[in-house]
Amino acid sequence: MVSGQVLAEVPFPPSVEDIYPPALLDAAPWLTKFSLFLWLAAAVVIVFFVVAYRKPKIVPTKGQWLAESMYGFVREGIAKDVIGHEGLRFAPYLASLFLFILVGNVFSIVPFIQVSPNAHIAFPAMMALCTYFLYLYQGFKKHGFLGYLKHAAVLPAPWFMQPLLLPIEALQAFVLQPVTLALRLFANMFAGHMLLLVFTLGGFALLNADSLFLKPISVISWAMTIMLTFFELLIAALQAYVFTLLTANYLAGTLAEEH
C-alpha cells in the first residue's frame, strides 16, 4: 500500500481544479485555461483553412489537398450520406463542428496542455444547444410549429397507444437528444483525462514507494500512459465523428417527411 506521505510527495496531484480551473486573470474571471484552449482550437481551424486556401490551385498543394479532403469527408461521408440532397447546405456547419471538436479533443494529449476543454460539461453543452436550436428551427420552418410537434412526438401507431408513446417520443426529441449529445462527448473526454492522470501520477507514487517491489511497477504504469495516449487520440477522433454524425442524424429526422 502506498502511504499518504508518498502520495503527498507526488508533484501536482490531481484536484478539482483540473476540471474547474481558476481564472487566469483577476480582472477577467471568464478567462480560464479551458476558455483559452477553446479560442486556440477555433484559431487553429480558421488559420489552417485560410492558409490552405490562400492561393488555391487546380493541382492542389499538400495543405489544400488536406483541407479539401477534410471538408469532403464531412460533406460526402456525413452530410450527404446521412441527410441526403438537403445535407449539402449543412456541410459547412458540420465540417466546422467536426474539426473544432477534433482539435479541442486532441489537446488532451498535447504536451503542456494535456486536457481537452470538452472535459468541462459547459462546452459540449453549448455545442449541443447549437445543434438543438438548429434542428428545431429547421423543423419549425419545414413543418410549421404544430406540424413539427406532431412530426417529432406522434408515431404512426394506433390511437390507444398514443398516451404511452407520445410522452416518450417528446422526451426523446426535445430533452434526451441534446442532453445525451453533450454528455457523451463530455464523459469520454473527462474519463480519458482522468485515466491519463491516474497512470502518470501513479507511476510517480510507485517510484517513490518504500517497497522495492513497487518501484519497478512504475514503469508499467508509465507504459500504460503511453498506450492510453494513443487510445485517447483514437477516442478524440471518434467522439468528434460521433457528435457530428448524430447532429446530421437529428437534422435528417427533422427534415424527413414522415416520422
From TrEMBL:
The gene is atpB. Keywords: ATP synthesis, Cell membrane, CF(0), Hydrogen ion transport, Ion transport, Membrane, Transmembrane, Transmembrane helix, Transport. Its main location: membrane. It is a multi-pass membrane protein. The keyword Ion transport applies. CDD domains: ATP-synt_Fo_a_6. Signal peptide: none annotated. This is ATP synthase subunit a. It is found in: Cell membrane; Membrane. Belongs to the ATPase A chain family. Gene3D superfamilies: ATP synthase, F0 complex, subunit A (1.20.120.220). Key component of the proton channel; it plays a direct role in the translocation of protons across the membrane. The chain crosses the membrane at residues 34-53, 90-113, 119-137, 144-161, 181-207, 219-242. The keyword Ribosomal protein does not apply.
